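Model the whole thing, not chain by chain.
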Amino acid sequence: MKKKTAYLGVMLALALICSYVEVLIPFSIGIPGIKLGLANIVIVFALYSLGTKEAYILSIARVLISGFMFGNVMAIAYSFAGGMLSLTVMYLLKKTDLLCPLSISIAGGIAHNIGQIIIATFLVSNYYVLYYVPVLMVAGFITGTLIGIVAQEVFLRVGHLLRVR
Amino acid sequence: MKKRFGKNDVIFISFLILFCVGVCVAVYKGGAVEGSNISITIDGAEYGTYSLLEEQIITIEQEGHINIIEIKDGEAFMKEASCPDQLCVDQNEISFDKESIICLPNKVVITVTSDMESDLDGIVR
């Protein structure tokens, strides 16, 4: 358990560094609200190497801390909804044991943006949000793919070192 | 645990792609909000609002410039215009909320408006 706590701390630090790097290098393609979500590499990796509960703890802690450091309350609300929905989808898909981390990450990326749209419809209460759904879904697909490739390769290479179960 | 890309993944990802495409089509084709009126402005000034449900022909005359707008089957289009480039006449018919036809030389702008307008224009953070 001690070992796990230490790993959680390390991974949280990593996730925060990823968030920070992302603030420094804006991955901007001209569409507001779309970013790479580098920190999700750590979350996906943790889901596989540490376990579900740990991934949730990590995700919540990351959203709160990075929200307070780099964002605002709105950013926290959006990230929280996206993060939780995406993690839940990834956990359920992982439980089926049929898919590789890459596919699960893609689903997670899409779920992440769907979660944000759900929050956005509540906050903005404007049906124009609807027009944004396809854009965000495609973006989630692309970022999910990139995150998935990295997380899967990292896990396959160093995941066994972190096996604490 | 599965570690590498396999048959299941191909099926799953194809399904996801289909899902995305489906949503795109649904939102941009079916889900688009039909407007109910067109509003016409000339040089920024409000000229008038006309219902898309009524079939009508609107003739706008101003200082020798003529624009004839026709509303038919719930869609509006520029039937004739006196402008030299005729770009407005070539534009497709409009019917969805926020679509517009602009005749730049005559400064005529037709925009579809909807009754379902939200009371919020945007959100400032």
